[in-house]
From TrEMBL:
<feature type="compositionally biased region" description="Polar residues">
    <location>
        <begin position="33"/>
        <end position="42"/>
    </location>
</feature>
<dbReference type="Pfam" id="PF06398">
    <property type="entry name" value="Pex24p"/>
</dbReference>
<feature type="region of interest" description="Disordered">
    <location>
        <begin position="84"/>
        <end position="103"/>
    </location>
</feature>
<keyword id="KW-1133">Transmembrane helix</keyword>
<dbReference type="GO" id="GO:0005778">
    <property type="term" value="C:peroxisomal membrane"/>
</dbReference>
<feature type="transmembrane region" description="Helical">
    <location>
        <begin position="258"/>
        <end position="278"/>
    </location>
</feature>
<feature type="region of interest" description="Disordered">
    <location>
        <begin position="458"/>
        <end position="479"/>
    </location>
</feature>
<dbReference type="GO" id="GO:0007031">
    <property type="term" value="P:peroxisome organization"/>
</dbReference>
<feature type="region of interest" description="Disordered">
    <location>
        <begin position="1"/>
        <end position="46"/>
    </location>
</feature>
<keyword id="KW-0472">Membrane</keyword>
<dbReference type="InterPro" id="IPR052816">
    <property type="entry name" value="Peroxisomal_Membrane_PEX28-32"/>
</dbReference>
<feature type="transmembrane region" description="Helical">
    <location>
        <begin position="154"/>
        <end position="185"/>
    </location>
</feature>
<dbReference type="InterPro" id="IPR010482">
    <property type="entry name" value="TECPR1-like_DysF"/>
</dbReference>
<protein>
    <submittedName>
        <fullName>Pex24p-domain-containing protein</fullName>
    </submittedName>
</protein>
<keyword id="KW-0812">Transmembrane</keyword>
<feature type="domain" description="TECPR1-like DysF">
    <location>
        <begin position="112"/>
        <end position="502"/>
    </location>
</feature>
Amino acid sequence: MGSEQADPFVNRDTPIPVVSVTGPDHHSAAASGVQTPSNNNGALHRLSPSRLKDKLDSLGSGESPGRVSDRIFTMLLSSVLPSEDLDDDQNGSPHVQVKDRRSRSYVDRPNFSLPVMSSNFRRFNSRIGVAFVAQNRAIRLFTWRTPTHTLSFLFVYTFVCIDPTLLAVLPLACCVFFIMVPAYLARHPPPPTHLPTDLYPLDGPPLAAARTVKPAPELSKDFFRNMRDLQNVMEDFSRGHDAVIAFLTPLTNFSNEALSSLIYIILIFTSCSLFIFSDLIPWRFVFLLAGYTLTALGHPAIQDLLAPPPQSSSSSTTTSPSDFLSAQNDALRSQLLTLSQTDITLTTSPETRSVEIFELQHRPLHSPQTAEYEPYLFSPSTYAPMSPSRIAGDRPKGCPFFEDVQPPRGWRWADKKWTLDLLSREWVEERCVTGVEVEIEGERWVTDLVYDDLVDDSTDADSSERGLSTASSQDEKEVLRRAWEVGRPSRMGEWRRRRWVRAVERVPSY
């Protein structure tokens, strides 16, 4: 009685199931050396937990159980999980368009490791029993296994709905009645019914050691109970996840844009209405009615009504409540779809924009006025006299033919050919281009102006030595700017350009 009592917190409502290793040709079973079941004369050999533990202990050749379990879990995980580093946005690959908020670039957490994974799983499985105990108690409560418990819960729920401030008291009351009282009764156990009560006074010295909770030992029955419950919880979560996704995804992912737009409008309208009129809704009555309804649905009589009728050989026209609810769900979806097709009008034409290209032509600066301009290239910039690239002495960049001009990434051509922009003065004024002459008729060329004084000063230079440095080019542009300001005589320069436009449309990503 004086030794400390420490029990694992696990679900002991049902006995531990028989553990069997199925599949005589299973690679992991063969690799581990565990005897697989064989079908001899129709009898299936099963492996109990104690025998399985003995087999696992024999694998360790005298090693500790923790070491053996660590090796077993590492082996199992390594057979199903990839060994490469699964971290973080594909090393910055440009093809990754969606950000992973679980990446270590957002939260610094340890990287994936098989030994750490197996160790954490064993520690987690040893301590998860309290969650399964709470889950089973909730199942028994809401399935009316003990009607007095369920009715007591409804009374407490009613008091909380009537006076929501009791929510602050509820956690403290749960701590007192579900933690403190059982712990006290463990140290001061009640007297047996066949003995006098005065031999076991509750105010006397404690008769037992304080109970503590410890993790379930590895490879014990409690450990396997936790694994069984964890397996079932994973299946329940997967089923619930798939059901929610199957119900919500078609309504909200805009695969049917009219239907999703209608749902969006309904949600926006409901949100605005609740923002204004939420104070007028009797929320206590709403939550009270919802709680009673959900609890009543778990009653066995209600479950029998909702269960589908058994199949019989004779044809029956009886419709079960589940079939009725399914039919109502289909009818509601059909009404929403009809309403979305009737009242929601969407623009199905793709988004369109206009792109531009500048046709540049060139002639030597020291050529006569009668010299012809020759095609040079098609450039995305105007290459105006005072443009930064021109001042820096860079040559224009582009492609020599219209056919080489490509639409922007993610777009495609909406027109068959390029169109000359006849409003040359507008785009010149919009870009504040100076030192040019604009044609408002004809071919709409925008030509550089060069001044005679500057031309005369540079006519003596040899044509083979016309490649000026960046500093001399800047001096030349400064002379040009001053010549424009004083209004010196000018003539056509070496560059001229005109603007072409063409429509593009966005390419769908699917």
